[in-house]
Amino acid sequence: MIEIKELYKSFGKQQVLKGVNLVINEGEVTAVIGRSGGGKSVLLKHIVGLLKPDSGSIFINGEDITKLKGAKLDEFRSDIGVVFQGGALFDSMTVYDNVAFPLTEKTKLNKKEIHEKVTKALSDVGLQGMEYKYPAELSGGMRKRVALARALIAHPKIILFDEPTTGLDPILVRSIHKLIRDTQKQYGFTGLIISHEIPEIFEITDRVAMLYDGRIVEVGTPEEIQKSENLIVKNFIMGIENGGSNEKGKS
Amino acid sequence: MINIVRFIGGHGLNFLSFLGKMFVFLFESLYYTFIPPFKFKNFLRQVRFFGNKSMIVVVFTGAFSGMVLALQGFYALNKFGAEALLGPVVALSLIRELGPVLCALMVTGRAGSAVTAEIGIMRITEQIDALTVMAVNPMKYVVVPNILAGIVTFPLLTAIFDVIGIYGGYMVSVHALGLSEGTYFSQMELYVDMEDIRIGLYKSLSFGLLVTWICTFMGYNSGYGARGVSRATTNAVVLSSVVILIWDYMLGAFLL
Lengths: 251, 256
Hints:
The structure holds 2 protein chains of 2 kinds. Chain A has helices spanning 40-47, 70-77, 95-106, 111-124, 140-152, 170-187, 222-226, 231-238, and strands spanning 2-11, 14-24, 29-33, 55-60, 63-64, 80-83, 158-162, 190-195, 207-212, 215-220. By secondary structure, chain A is of the alpha/beta class. In chain A, helix 6 links the parallel strand 7 and strand 8 (190-195). The longest helix of chain A has 18 residues, at 170-187. Chain A is globular, with a radius of gyration of 18 Å. Chain A starts with a strand and ends in a 13-residue tail after the last helix. The relative contact order of chain A is 0.20. The radius of gyration of chain B is 21 Å and the shape is elongated. In chain B, helix 3 (55-80) crosses helix 6 (138-176). Classes of the chains: A alpha/beta, B mainly alpha.
């Protein structure tokens, strides 16, 4: 379980997170929705220790990760996979090397075992036969799939998705969402998806949280969120201006 | 008046903060150099990148530097009737000064800029963040191999530069200016000491550290977008080149 308590973060004079409180249940997929520039990605980066909050805590299985450093933080990170917005694939490596990277760097598996795992991970995301291509040779959707395969390969308990479908066409959006849902069922990880794909995101999540003006203003099941009486949530889902606008914020 | 003080103070503080960041970065890199696991494969790849791939540039620059030195040296020495000293003039200029400096400047332009751009792109495309979240230390994986490769390859490239330069000087002196082969080399043997070679070696070692330190730092801290990377690359090359010349003078004047 991930528990975020009273998380505050500013960049200079700009306050991005203003007391975020959120619980992400184990084995569930939770989405954080909100306007671009609302601080969703900043929130995600705190969960994996890429940013340190000004104040507040993030408990993962009872341990406050905002207080951890060095090897102890790395130990926690080995249980977390991240699918970055642009994939963050190593462009000088092939697809195979990218997916194998967490295993070659952090485990003592031999080449044969790594090969088996990479083949399985690539097959799980539907990319058999793409092993020796470079990221630049792949389409946007394929790159996201490779990033997902890389996040899955070490079987982390938690996977964080930072806008995994940004820039993709509606068919690919559905296909990536289905892939996330299927792999979650298969591997049982706890998922957090940062997204503004409305209404597609409701189909693959167990719970949805709306981030507005640096705070979580509503949390509930997809059905509850869609029926919410909260004007901010309602306007955002319907795509009406001022529905959670926070362009000043940092994404 | 207050505005001028504020302007100088503001820039002074920014400069001190920049220097502080640079030294923290250097100490962190040196610290991780001794912490296992060692990224030997990355180190070898960067040795190849800095060393092997800079060879053509170094050979050409070395050859023409030696040839020009011989040509100009002959013109000056001829006025005093001291053409016999052309060999030592070419060799000492190359070994003590021009070899380490020109070689460092050429490698900065060819490989240092590429290292800054590569690390800068890794930064803006979140590849550095990806390493961090996979619990792979980016300093150890990306920065340390470059710094170590610089320290190893700069002296070797400088040695090649010196040898090629001396041979270029020989070609001009003997085959174009009519100096005897024996005079060129025997005088060189007489005037060039091991001390001169040691000075050249120390210079090239320190340039290797300085160039890779500046270039990796600039890439690691590059700003956002293509403009951020391009600015970081330009700054890396300019700062490295200026620091090479300043450090060369300081070493020559105060230390060696």
